Amino acid sequence: MSLSKGFAFAAFSDRTLASIFDMKRYIILIVASVLIINAYSQRVGVEGLIGYSAMVVPTNGPFINGVQISILSNFYPPKASFFSFTTGIVFQNENEWNFLKVPVKLTFLIGKKVTFLFGGGLAGNYVMLPKESYNKYGIISKSDFTLNGMIFLGFSVNIIKNWKIKFIPEYESSLTTLYKSFGGRHGYDYEKYHSISFNLGVIYIFNNIKN
Q: What is the pLDDT of residue 62?
């Protein structure tokens, strides 16, 4: 290995490790928050979702089609069944792009048998892209970690005791830079991305206490 390649590899490793440590701090904060919320929760729900997703980087369009898989937990505070907190793990694949996300959402609930859901939240997002794909997108440098914002609107239907079917479209946008590319007035652009997904799955609710 040449000296220049060695320095390049070391710099890449340092950026990757820094990104992982950033993600680790974010996950520790989420786990601590979940433990506190769970201590005050009357019911806890676990859901599995799979859906179609599409992402776009505006200056590099068009949309890239993919799939999104979610394993999430919902926490329903006592005497406040009109909202819940949600977190978990989401894997999103968009062609060469892969994202591993830890979302934190606040969901408002209207109805019982058929429940309308809406809300928003934030997600820590670990970004994976093969090095050979850089030229395709004109990438100078890529962030390994982004902070995303999201909004969603959907519904769930109670099918049998403690089981629900859920359908939830979701819009998501990176609040921090995904990558830096060639172009723009100053020779490069700081690129962010947007995605939309349509997710379908089931929820099982533990400790179901009727109000």
A: 75
